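Handout, section B. The chain below has 229 residues.
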Amino acid sequence: ERVVAKMSKSLKNVVNPDEMIKMYGADSVRMYEMFMGPLTVSKPWNTQGLVGVNRFLEKIWTLSEKPITNIDITGSIEDKNLVSLRKTYAKTVKKVTQDTANLDFNVAISQMMIFVNEASKLEVLPKQMWEGFILMLSPYAPHLGEELWEKAGHTKTIAYEPWPTFSEEFCIEDTKQIVVSVNGKVRDKFEAATGTSKEELERLAKETTGAKKFIDGKTIVKVIVVPEN
C-alpha cells in the first residue's frame, strides 16, 4: 500500500530544490512544479516526473536544431503534416493563452507537449510557428526561452516581445465524431465532415451497424439531431 505524506521538516521528507536544480536545471524544476497538477490541489513529489519534464525540454532543444523556413502558414498549404501542425499550433496558442490566464499551467504544458510531438515530424520548422512556440514556452522555462530566442536569430531579450496570436479558422476540426443513440443508449459512432447537414447526419446514423440492429423492422417515432457547438 502506498502512503503519501506532505513534505515537512519534522518528518525529514523534504526534497531540497537546490539539489534538484543542480541535477536537472532551474527550468526543469520550475516546469515540473507547474506540471504536477492544479495549483489548489496537494500533489505528491515524484522525481521521475521531473526527469520526464527534463527530457521534454531536451526534446525541444533537439527540435531547435532543425532548419527554419519563412513559409506563409496562413496561405494554401499542400503538405499534410504542415496542415496538421498549423491546426495544432492554432489550438496551442488558444489553449496556452487561456490556460495560463486561468492558472491552469499543467494543461497548458500538456498542450505544448502535443505541439512538440507534431513539430518533430517535420524536417523544416515554419519560422512563425516556431517563434510563437518559444514565446509561449518562455514563461514556463524562461532560461531555455531566452536561449532559443537568441538561437533563432534575435539579439534582444524575449521578455518584451508580444504574445503570439492565432486564427480561429485553423482551430476548426475537419471532421467530428458523431454518437448514435437509440432509446437513450449509445449504439454506434461515426466520423462526419464538419458542417454536414442534419438530413445527411440522420441518414448516415441510420446506416451504422449499431443503429440498424435496433431500428430494422421497427417504426422510428422521433429523431433528434444535435446541432454542432
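Note. The longest helix spans residues 80-101. Compare this with the example in section A.
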